[in-house]
Input
Amino acid sequence: MLRHFAISLLLVFISLGGWARTRPRYGGTLRVEIEGDPWQKPAGLARRLILDGLTRIDSNGILQPALATDWKSDNQDHRWQFHLRPGVHFSDGSPLTSLTVVSALNLACQSNCPWTAVHAVGTSVVFTGDSPMPNLPFLVAADDYLISLTINGEGKAPDNLTGTGAFEVASLANGILTLAANETCWQGRPFLDTVEIRPHRAIRDQWLDLSVGRADLVQVPPEQLRQAQQQRLTLLTSPPVTLLALEVADTGALADPLLRQAIALAVDRAALSNVIFQKQGEITASLIPATLSGYAFLFPSDRDLNKAHELRGGNTPPPLTLTAEGDGAMQLAAQRIALNLREAGFTIQVRDNAQHADLTLRQLHMDRTDPRALLESILRASGEFTESPPAPDASPASLYQAEREALSRNTLIPLLDLPRSVAVSSRVRDLHLGADGQPDIADASLVEASREAAP
Output
């Protein structure tokens, strides 16, 4: 009996020891390298660490409270009232009030907003709209509507972006942006002491720094995901959260809907997926991912070059300009699309960062959320949103009809759904990707954090 007790006690100690070794620890600096700008909209990494929204979407795609604790609609979704969380302060100590929220929202969205007007009413924020706003709680969780401090207690604009999030700006030196833990964050202090973000870093250099221990978190573009797997990098990969789409102008020669339809039929999605993105993207002709809608297969995605020639009617349109947002694979994809369109009888000129191009290859950010809200956010991002909600109700039939109507104009042509990936060092623990594919650094910790933090 005593022997059994001793063995049981030993197992308990072993279990507790293992838990102590793996539980999150406070302290340490996470070193992050990225290709782009940490402040860019949407999906800038620093913005998400510093700012919060009225609501948020968790890693499972579920809408959750954030700076607002609850919300309700009236007047058939023409009016929404969000009650603010009490006792929240910005990282500089300024209190979060309904007035500061309204000021931030008015600065963040000056046109094409999901609402007509926003007002401060006591400790709540009220949105009103000329049209129904059934998706508003989902929409205000987006990066565009995160809350920043516009005027501090001295009546001046803050020197740095100031929010209520897990981190605050500490310094910018030698090209490295350093964020420090927000000790008074309403969600609690993050485990990390600091996050160092090194922007504008080539992917090759990021991976080299990761391999020699100079970086803890680096990016892995979809087209290089297979290569990263072959190099046995430790990867975190999201479901499809980025829509690769071709925007087509409806002016000039392309005011003819038959020409726009011909362009849609001429693009070879399979070649883009197989050659450019190394089979890491899912071919789609739908705006909403199949996992959310269930009907994506109803939109044909196969190339039909003969039909494209037929719709063009033997006429040779004037030269069209094609540009792509981004470098690397985006530029290669633009060249591939240009080749497709030339085979269909179009004259295409590919130009870098061209203004007012006839065709623009874009990446539209998505998250795993309500499909009706996602459809509205995509249409808003592409300038395709109309005055009324894209789907009058949440039924699959209504959503399908709304998407079919939007796609029938062929001004936004879906091509691929792409994942987002990052590679991490062995020091990183408890790091997960959010619904938008961004790393949730606020909950991450480092294995040797306590050792680093020791004097």
